[in-house]
TrEMBL record, chain A:
Component of the Integrator complex, composed of core subunits INTS1, INTS2, INTS3, INTS4, INTS5, INTS6, INTS7, INTS8, INTS9/RC74, INTS10, INTS11/CPSF3L, INTS12, INTS13, INTS14 and INTS15. The core complex associates with protein phosphatase 2A subunits PPP2CA and PPP2R1A, to form the Integrator-PP2A (INTAC) complex. INTS9 is part of the RNA endonuclease subcomplex, composed of INTS4, INTS9, INTS11 and inositol hexakisphosphate (InsP6). Interacts with WDR73; interaction is required for the assembly of the RNA endonuclease subcomplex in the cytoplasm. Keywords: Cytoplasm, Nucleus. It is found in: Cytoplasm; Nucleus. CDD domains: Int9-like_MBL-fold. Residues 305-433 form the Beta-Casp domain. This is Integrator complex subunit 9. InterPro entries: Beta_Casp, Integrator_9su, IntS9-like_C, Metallo-B-lactamas, RibonucZ/Hydroxyglut_hydro. Belongs to the metallo-beta-lactamase superfamily. RNA-metabolizing metallo-beta-lactamase-like family. INTS9 subfamily. Its main location: cytoplasm. It comes from Delphinapterus leucas.
From TrEMBL, chain B:
It is found in: Cytoplasm; Nucleus. Keywords: Cytoplasm, Hydrolase, Metal-binding, Nucleus, Zinc. Its main location: cytoplasm. This is Integrator complex subunit 11. SUPFAM superfamilies: Metallo-hydrolase/oxidoreductase. One of its GO terms (cellular component) is cytoplasm. Component of the Integrator complex, composed of core subunits INTS1, INTS2, INTS3, INTS4, INTS5, INTS6, INTS7, INTS8, INTS9/RC74, INTS10, INTS11/CPSF3L, INTS12, INTS13, INTS14 and INTS15. The core complex associates with protein phosphatase 2A subunits PPP2CA and PPP2R1A, to form the Integrator-PP2A (INTAC) complex. INTS11 is part of the RNA endonuclease subcomplex, composed of INTS4, INTS9, INTS11 and inositol hexakisphosphate (InsP6). Interacts with WDR73; interaction is required for the assembly of the RNA endonuclease subcomplex in the cytoplasm. Belongs to the metallo-beta-lactamase superfamily. RNA-metabolizing metallo-beta-lactamase-like family. INTS11 subfamily. Residues 16-233 form the Metallo-beta-lactamase domain. Pfam families: Beta-Casp (PF10996), IntS11_C (PF21386), Lactamase_B_6 (PF16661), RMMBL (PF07521). The keyword Hydrolase applies. It comes from Delphinapterus leucas. The gene is INTS11. CDD domains: INTS11-like_MBL-fold. Residues 245-354 form the Beta-Casp domain.
């Protein structure tokens, strides 16, 4: 069993597991931090951005000044933003049989994988993952396509030139593989390859492997996956949460007894407590608004925003904010708010019970009804008429490189009355703000990441006791900025196996058994013998049938009755296949009983010491040093019997046929071993 | 011999009071717990004393499954769990769980408040009963206990209707509940995978009907409603608050919009708005079209359909009113019917669930009232027709089929058809009658990968003429069964192997020396056994694979040589073959 690691980003994983003749891709996350190296795409012509000076080398060479612009000491690529794709060369992606999606954030690279690699398999995801994933992709495509940019920079990617650039451009990895955003057509085609699954649904892959999504507690429809055969179990844990927010709680019990547990998607801010971050968010928000300033919240159109709106719902009146308008601006704002209300079965218990009343599970329905929350597809159109300040705006994209957020940054950045509050943990807020410097507006960083922290991980691992843990290398050492915090890493025994981008891991797995079905007729014919108390044996001779990776044992066909002389002759002329396997014999032969059997006539042969012919009358037994010699004079046959061996010597091989194995009474206790 | 036993306590050759007991691999499951609309005495509920007369039901049943919210499938549930007494799990889908208690409460009100029945279940009992419910999601495998698992499939009959697979080990039963194989205006079509159950228990309401296309019936319905409204008449549509009502509302709503009609449409009870709300929240359970467009336009937010007030019934001019209950036997629909029946301009339809005894009820009403209004009977009920049932049987590929929820005569017809077409046995037990199906489950064991691979390496498809046998030893320790190679079994159990060797003497007329005889034997065997490894060893012996052949002089007859052919038990066939081959003599030396 092997694991091919295609992404180095611990929260946007993309791994391929080869397990029992199946090739399973686990997530396909898209690393969007690459866009931080690009200039923002303004919705409205921005004189500031368009007048940024071109960057030139130390020696004054300015041949890159069309591609690279400088802003407050940072250098940015002036081009359509590009994303860092998972590795596509490490494994032939057309051989991938299935892709398992754990949550909507971890499927953003799907169109790159399914559309241009020869992929012909199936993608499995829950309905909320697909619907919200579609919204995220739609928003992304919309943000980028509605601001067409003629310029596409590529000169700077040249390895020799990249070396000369300042950080972080100099250190950007795999720039040659960075790609522009996909189109809506590619998104639709990719999503059409998805098959919807429900939690705890058992999905058979080619009869060899069974995969099952489990609730992971992180987002609507987010799942961990069990990949198992009858004797091996791999758990894939990706983006899980133990906090009580809106999604269904995490299913931990089903992760028990794993041989291997692949652990990805832990919190990106292990030192921040989500609850206190929410508190900080609310107090900063109300303070700014009370002072007459505006609040900008860069966010994704789904996820934490539901929780923030719910907090505000409870907070607005007590904080005296009832008159302040809340705007949610995204091309998919309406869809996101609507979809959140129809996925009752994927929600936590509290919210589920609401639909029995029947009431919408999220209170933002009421915020919309009472006009406190308004949503718009973009700043153009209705919004410009309704826009009132001071206000609170939720809008994307959290990278601050595209989307309506760029407009608000330009609009509000110069006033210290305004505040931008970062809640999404995916991007470094300082890097996100870099192209807007110098800024007068206040910047508050309250990242809300509900995914597992290291304390929770260690509890979880103690609880589910996997034999081996596999994780990204980032989790096996403290964060670079806090190298003394050895509590901020995975601590388990045996130590976790770590992987990095483009690595192939051989997982410590020894498969020893496989399921096989014994057909009832065969089972009926078996004669079990108790060897030790509680342990029975039965010899099995059967025909193996294998179909669709399922194995069945059927009873051996009855020997064909010889129908005519000719046929029999031909049959005996056939050279037998020497590979026919025989049952193994064990035990010793009780001589007296053996002789008695040989003497007996065969009128009522005791099974299985069956003798078809007449009994022998002239048997002599001689004792030897190691055992006995039995002589059948009439048949000119000599049988040497020792503890662990028997040798039959005769002239006539017809005789041999007669004294064949089933007829030799091995010690009755073990005879089952030689039953034919 | 293991067996599956099925006993209908209701819905056996009958429609109504669905309640079927299934025993499978030692597990007892009750499918549905319905009431019978045709009776108001003891017979309206299933006879649970069949399960046990003295013991507690909880001890006899592993679980109860409810297929959908119609009262003939869940109406007896509070009586069963709270009055007879059952504390085990009750499984149903989330929409069923949401809507079921509302209909039960409605049913209770009519029975107790209007008909004045005593000893009926109370509101509290409905609540307590619902606390025992566990929600299941589509396709989720629910582990009832370590062995028994159930799985729900989409049935498309009403919102949240499901078919259930009940599985223990390799044995399984599928119960369809009520289902619909063609998508309608608000629900999708039933679907099941090729799960090959031992038994498929299917409803058979429309066992003999092949229904015309839904479009035609819809057009017919709209035309008649339109005509009535055009001539200033009033249209009464008695319906159940949930289910077909929503479908007809969508139909009329879109028609009104397209034709730009102004006549008001009313929905009679307060329940309806609530009902529509359920549909809005359970969008994932509706059909694909509604799911795709709900963000732009939620189909269950009706523009033309307004709440009905009793006073409206006397207002002049045309109108359309949806009123509950659907059977016209009580409540608002009956009141409006009384008011409007006298005028031939008006029209009433019955968009109903098929219920026995119902038509009589209408007849009484007509006689008393001298109905002058036109009465149209239109069936929009979403059951699979004969074609649909056959289609589902084809999808699931069961080994046996059992018919419930239909009339005996029609079942008979369908039974023959199923037996002919699918070559499977089909049963149609009456209530209280038990069908027993012997099963022969295969036994799953673990085979050591070494043994399996050794076998697979020799080719995947065994030759039909020369079947190859796999030999191994089955080790049975407690409930752990493992099939390993005999060597491994001996090793694991600390036993020694017993060597068995055969030696056969073959006499040959050959005056030459032993060595030369050996050479002749070697060249003969070499030419005959082309695929085998034949060797002439330096000590003068000849081997074929592991079979040893030695030539020796005869003690008495110098013209005869003795060949000693020796082999182990493992090579028995080849050894025997060589002996008989050598007995035929050697070809003349050239």
């Amino acid at each position: 069993m092997k694991l091919y690691c295609l992404s180095g980003h611990p929260t946007l994983p993309c791994n391929v597991l080869k397990f029992k003749s199946t090739t399973i891709m686990l997530d396909c996350g898209l690393d969007m931090t690459s866009t931080l190296n690009f200039l923002p795409l303004p919705l409205v012509q921005s004189p500031r951005l368009s007048n940024l000076p071109g960057w030139s080398l130390k020696d004054g060479n300015a041949f890159l000044d069309k591609e690279l612009k400088e802003c407050s000491g940072h250098v940015f690529v002036d081009s359509v933003p590009e994303f860092c794709l998972p590795e596509t060369e490490l494994i032939d992606l057309s051989t991938v049989d299935v892709i398992l999606i754990s949550n909507y954030h971890c499927m953003m690279a799907l169109p790159y994988i399914t559309e241009h690699t020869g992929f012909t398999g199936t993608v499995y995801a829950t309905e909320p993952s697909v619907q919200i994933g579609r919204l995220l992709m739609e928003e992304l495509v919309n943000f980028i396509e509605r601001v067409p940019k003629a310029q596409s920079a590529s000169l700077w990617k040249n390895k020799d030139i990249q070396r000369l650039l300042p950080s972080p451009l100099k250190d950007a990895v795999e720039v040659s593989t960075w790609r522009r955003c996909y189109t809506m057509q590619e998104v639709n085609s990719a999503l059409s390859k998805i098959q919807l699954v429900g939690y705890s649904q058992k999905i058979e892959l080619f009869g060899a492997v069974q995969v099952t999504p489990l609730s992971s507690g992180y987002a609507l429809g987010s799942s961990n996956w069990i990949i198992q055969s009858h004797y091996e179990k791999v758990s894939y844990v990706s983006g899980s949460s133990l906090l009580t927010t809106h999604p269904q709680p995490m299913d931990q019990a089903s992760l028990k007894n794993s041989d291997v547990l692949i652990l990805t998607g832990l919190t990106q801010i292990p030192t921040a407590n989500p609850d206190s971050m929410v508190g900080e968010f609310c107090s900063n928000l109300s303070q700014t608004v009370r002072n007459g300033g505006n609040v900008l919240v860069p966010c994704y159109p789904s996820g934490v925003i539901y929780d923030l709106l719910e907090c505000l719902y409870q907070y607005i009146d007590s904080a005296g904010l009832s008159s302040i308008p809340f705007y949610f601006i995204s091309p998919v704002a309406n869809s996101s708010l609507e979809f959140s209300q129809i996925f009752a079965e994927w929600l936590c218990h509290n919210k589920q019970t609401k639909v029995y009343l029947p009431e919408p599970p999220f209170p933002h329905a009421e915020l919309i009804q009472t006009n406190k929350l308004k949503h718009y597809p973009s700043i153009h159109g209705d919004f410009s008429n309704d826009f009132r300040q001071p206000c609170v705006v939720f809008t994307g994209h959290p990278s601050l490189r595209f989307g309506d957020v760029v407009h608000f940054m330009e609009l509000w950045g110069k006033s210290s009355l305004n505040t931008v509050i970062f809640t999404e943990p995916d991007f470094s807020y300082l890097e996100a703000l870099a192209p807007y410097q110098p800024l007068a507006m206040k910047c508050i960083y309250c990242p809300i990441d509900t995914r597992l922290n290291f304390i929770q991980v260690s509890k979880l691992l103690k609880e589910v006791q996997p034999l081996h843990v596999v994780c990204p290398e980032q989790y096996t050492q403290p964060p670079p900025a806090q190298s003394h915090r050895i509590d901020l890493m995975i601590d388990c025994q045996p130590p976790a196996m770590s992987y990095r981008r483009a690595e192939v891991l051989a997982l410590p797995f020894k498969r020893r058994y496989e399921k096989i079905e014994i057909m009832p007729e065969l089972a009926d014919s078996l004669v079990p013998m108790e060897i030790k108390p509680g342990v029975s044996l039965a010899t099995v001779s059967a025909v193996l049938h294998t179909k669709d990776n399922k194995h069945i044992l059927q009873p051996p066909p009855r020997p064909a009755q010889p129908t005519g002389g000719k046929k029999r002759k031909r049959a005996s002329d056939d050279i037998p296949d020497c590979k026919v396997l025989k049952p193994l014999l064990s035990g010793s032969i009780p001589v007296e009983q053996f002789v008695q059997t040989l003497e007996k006539s065969t009128q009522h042969p005791p099974v299985p010491f069956l003798l078809e012919q007449h009994g022998f009358s002239d048997i002599k037994v001689e004792d030897t040093a190691k055992g006995h010699i039995v002589l059948l004079q009439e048949a000119e046959t000599l049988i040497q019997i020792e503890e662990d061996s028997t040798h039959i010597i005769c002239d006539n091989d017809e005789m041999l046929r007669m004294i064949r194995i089933p007829r030799i009474p091995l010690s009755s206790k073990l005879r089952c071993l030689c039953l034919k | 011999m293991p067996e599956i036993r099925v006993t209908p306590l209701g819905a056996g050759q009958d429609v109504g009071r669905s309640c079927i007991l299934v025993s499978i691999a030692g597990k007892n499951v009750m499918l549905d717990c319905g009431m019978h609309m045709g009776f108001s005495d003891d017979r309206r509920f299933p006879d649970f004393s069949y399960i046990t007369r003295s013991g507690r039901l909880t001890d006899f049943l592993d679980c109860v499954i409810i297929s959908h919210f119609h009262l003939d499938h869940c109406g007896a549930l509070p009586y069963f769990s709270e009055m007879v007494g059952y504390d085990g799990p009750i499984y149903m889908t989330q929409p069923t769980q949401a809507i079921c208690p509302i209909l039960l409460e409605d049913y209770r009100k009519i029975a107790v408040d209007k008909k004045g029945e005593a000893n009926f279940f109370t509101s509290q009992m409905i609540k307590d009963c619902m606390k025992k419910v566990v929600a299941v999601h589509l396709h989720q495998t629910v582990q009832v206990d370590d062995e028994l698992e159930i799985k729900a499939y989409y049935a498309g009959h009403v919102l949240g209707a499901a078919m259930f697979q009940i599985k223990v080990g390799s044995e399984s039963v599928v119960y369809t509940g009520d289902y619909n194989m063609t998508p309608d205006r608000h629900l999708g079509a039933a679907w099941i995978d090729k799960c090959r159950p031992n038994l498929l228990i299917t409803e058979s309401t429309y066992a003999t009907t092949i229904r015309d296309s839904k479009r035609c019936r819809e057009r017919d319905f709209l035309k008649k409603v339109h005509e009535t409204v055009e001539r200033g008449g009033k249209v009464l549509i008695p319906v159940f608050a949930l289910g077909r009502a929503q479908e007809l509302c969508i139909l009329l709503e879109t028609f009104w919009e397209r034709m730009d009609l102004k006549a008001p449409i009313y929905f009679s009870t307060g329940l309806t708005e609530k009902a529509n709300h359920y549909y809005k929240l359970f969008i994932p359970w509706t059909n694909q079209k509604i799911r795709k467009t709900f963000v732009q336009r939620n189909m269950f937010e009706f523009k033309h359909i307004k709440a009905f007030d009793r006073a409206f019934a006397d207002s002049p001019g045309p109108m359309v009113v949806f009123a509950t209950p659907g059977m016209l036997h009580a409540g608002q629909s009956l009141q409006i019917f009384r008011k409007w029946a006298g005028n031939e301009k008006n029209m009433g339809t019955v968009g109903h669930k098929i219920l026995s005894g119902q038509r009589k009820l209408e007849m009484e009403g007509r006689q008393v009232l001298e109905v002058k209004m036109q009465v149209e009977y239109m069936s929009f009920s979403a059951h699979a027709d004969a074609k649909g049932i056959m289609q589902l049987v084809g999808q699931a590929e069961p080994e046996n089929v059992l018919l419930v929820h239909g009339e005996a005569k029609k079942m008979e017809f369908l039974k023959q058809k199923i037996e002919q077409e699918f070559r499977v046995s089909c049963y149609m037990p009456a209530n209280g009658e038990t069908v027993t199906l012997p099963t022969s489950p295969s036994i799953p064991v673990g085979i050591s990968l070494g043994l399996l691979k050794r076998e697979m390496a020799q080719g995947l498809l065994p030759d039909a003429k020369k079947p190859r046998l796999l030999h191994g030893t089955l080790i049975m320790k407690d409930s752990n069964f493992r099939l390993v190679s005999s060597e491994q079994a001996l090793k694991e159990l600390g036993l020694a192997e017993h060597q068995l060797r055969f030696t056969c003497r073959v006499h040959l007329h050959d005056t030459r020396k032993e060595q030369e005889t050996a050479v002749r034997v070697y060249s003969h065997l070499k030419s005959v056994l082309k695929d085998h490894c034949v060797q002439h060893l330096p000590d003068g012996s000849v081997t074929v694979e592991s079979i040893l052949i030695q030539a020796a002089a005869h003690s008495e007859d110098p013209g005869t040589k003795v060949l000693l052919v020796s082999w182990t038990y493992q090579d028995e066939e080849l050894g025997s073959y060589l002996t008989s081959l050598l007995k035929k003599g050697l070809p003349q030396a050239s």
